[in-house]
Specification:
Blueprint: E1 2-9, E2 16-23, E3 34-40, E4 45-48, H1 50-58, E5 62-63, H2 65-71
Parallel strand pairs: 1-5
Antiparallel strand pairs: 1-2, 2-3, 3-4
Organism: Candidatus Shapirobacteria bacterium CG2_30_35_20
InterPro entries: Ribosomal_bS16, Ribosomal_bS16_dom_sf
Pfam families: Ribosomal_S16 (PF00886)
């Protein structure tokens, strides 16, 4: 099965991610089939080739949770932390 997933690259504290199509069980930084775009968390830059992504989704590729959260942030609301009362 093919997945559209985030592939990390760059230094540890200057991480950026490529959005790629790869096999479901491939290594995180292993081989990939197609490069669809990139995401940089420091500047919150997201660039995706939407035509290519739609083509791969039609061919059966599925989005991982990380990519889904980037594309549809309203679908995953932030959880509020509950403070515990001191006894």
């Amino acid at each position: 099965m093919l997945k559209i997933k985030l592939r990390p690259n760059g230094k540890i504290h200057q991480r950026s991610f490529r959005i790629v199509v790869a096999k479901e069980h491939s290594k995180m930084d292993g081989k990939f089939i197609a490069n669809l775009g990139f995401y940089t968390p420091q500047s919150k830059t997201l660039q995706i080739n939407k035509d290519e992504m739609q083509k791969w989704i039609k061919n059966g590729a599925q989005l991982t949770i990380g990519v889904e959260k980037l594309l549809n942030p309203d679908k995953f609301p932030n959880k509020k932390k509950v403070k515990k009362a001191k006894v």
